[in-house]
Amino acid sequence: MNEAQAAAKLQNASAHSFRHQFNCCKNCRCPNFGLTESSDYLAESQHLGYPALHCKACGSYPPLVDSHSVNLIVEEKAKQQLTKSPCGCSHCEPGFFLGTTVGVKRYGKTGANSQRYQCRKCQNVFTQVNIKGLEPLSRLFSLLNRGHNPQQIMQQLEIAPKIYYQLLQRLYQCLRFYSRQQEQRVLHRSFCALHTESQIHEFSEQKRIWTLCSTEVTSGYVLLHTHNQSQLQLNDSAHYQQKTSTLLPPLSDSPIVEALKRRYQLTLNRYHFEDLHYGSTAALRGSQLLQPALTAYAHFQLLSAFTSQNQNFHHYIEHESSIRGAALMSCVEEIKQQRADIYYVYRHPRSETDMGSAGNKVGWWNDRWYPADFGAFCSITNAQQNPTKVALAQPLACQNFFQHLQLNMPKQLKSFSSVDALFEINRALFNYLLPDKEGLTPAMRLGCCEQQMTASELVSAAVAAVNSEHIDKFKR
Length: 476
Hints:
Nucleotidyltransferase, domain 5, eight-stranded mixed beta sheet, three-stranded antiparallel beta sheet, alpha+beta
């Protein structure tokens, strides 16, 4: 066996695989749960007025999902979120959390004396990018940290728009690479819990996108932030339809049980449970808007790469049925093996008398909700009468990140090209630079760093991580 074959075998043995088919029974207590083929299935039913799979074993009608579109969205989002670019072979190198690195070997030099490399798997030859010019990146990040908009930054740095966008992309790639490298290092643990909430992010001129944020529960560290903008050309049915909003209001002024009953009723008023709309909007130039539910399926598939490092894990998701199926499909086998559980959580300023300690049955499936410090929770996967109490150490982490974005993201963006870069830069800023009342940042709480970093220290560490990766490949 040669070196390339050995590397390929190692990668395939530890590679993470995303799920590709999503049309199946999504009732955890049904023997058909997660099975894409069963004699109990009626492949397409219109019984409830929309295309659905009918499982005769449990009587459920999960709406049909465009699996092909989800797979394309996962591929697009994985390249944006998890790729190791600019390090390694662009064809073979698995992304962060997706498998063991393939590795490269030196392959001479270019006419300009830059080192060339050859992929050990496909023999593709390429020149590795070496990040230079630390000062412009540090100055750009500092200005973004102070909330300056692109026009102000270009004036202060005395650079043309082309140079600004080049620096922005370079900063984005370095910070993304460094943060993923640290996350991969610290998330090897026996148990992990993730908290996911959605939000509408607004730009000027009525441009509004739907976003999902997932944080590590104990630290409040933002692991993944996904939005429903895409450059993919998909079926019309995969695109957002801009219908009247079906978003669930917080209802924080109502008693908690009454609020939950009202939220279930509003969900029943939808075309189907996953049919989420947030009103009229306009896409940024160069992009399309996707159905929120399809975005959710892609988001939780990416999260499955993070949780693949854990023996056991929990997903705490907001009380929103449009993301329920996506969460379930991200960990079918782990649920069956009793290694994973999924809970609805509802943040509400309840009083002690709002809900009994034994829980309250609410909704069409008689979901049993239990009181918690942050409001209430309901197990989706666990049939026990007294499930483990849900504790969110940082219950407002997702909301705090959404507020940070709304305050710091430029409102005048018209083009899609810089949105991902700015979202990711602000994720790094939020995780590494913003301390809580105890002086701890989310990155410190997660274990990514020992002390609060300055903007220049974070950029320096990120650039060093990218450049040193060239050397590290030869030590593996």
